[in-house]
Amino acid sequence: MKDLYQSIKDKLISRTKQIESLDEWLFITVNTMKAIVDNSNKDEIDIVIQVADMQDTEQIQRFYDLIQGKYGGEGFSCRNDERYYYLSSIVAKYPPTELSEKDRENVRGYIDYNHFFLYEI
Question: What φ, ψ does residue 90 adopt, rounded to 5°?
C-alpha cells in the first residue's frame, strides 16, 4: 500500500491533469474523503466506509459531493487550499465506470490507510 501511495503522490505532486487508473482514482477519492472528514469531525470518520459498498464511480462522485457539503464547510481547515481544489478536480473528472468486487475490496484497504494526499502534495 505504501508503494502505491508514493507512486500516486508523485503523480499528484507533478500536477497530472487526470488519473487513468481506476485503482489510483479510487485511492485518491477515498483518501481525500477521509481527509475531509478527519479534518472536520474525527468522530464521524466511519461514514467513509460506505464507499466500499458502492457500485460505480458516479455513485462515489455523488457521495464525495455529499462529504464536501457536510464536512467541507467552515470547520474544514483546507477548504480554500489549492491542493483540495486540485484533488476535487481529479475526483470529478473520472468517467463512469462499474466497480468489481476486487475494486470494492481495494477500497476497504484504502479506507484504513492513514496518510493523506491533501497534506503531502
Answer: -65, -45
Task: Name the DSSP class of 115.
Answer: -
Long-range contacts made by residues 13-16, C-beta under 8 angstroms, separation at least 24? 13/121, 15/86
Partners of 100 in the β-ladder: none
Output phi, psi for 98, to 5 deg. Answer: -75, 145
Q: How far is CA 34 from CA 14, 27, 28, in A?
A: 22, 10, 10
Give the model confidence (pLDDT) of 74-111 as tens digits. Answer: 889 998 899 999 999 999 999 999 999 999 999 999 99
Residue 70 burial (CB count, 10 A): 15
The residues near 77 (Cβ < 8 Å, ≥ 6 apart) are 39
Report yes or no: 28 and 46 within 8 Å, Cβ to Cβ: no
Q: pTM above 0.85?
A: yes
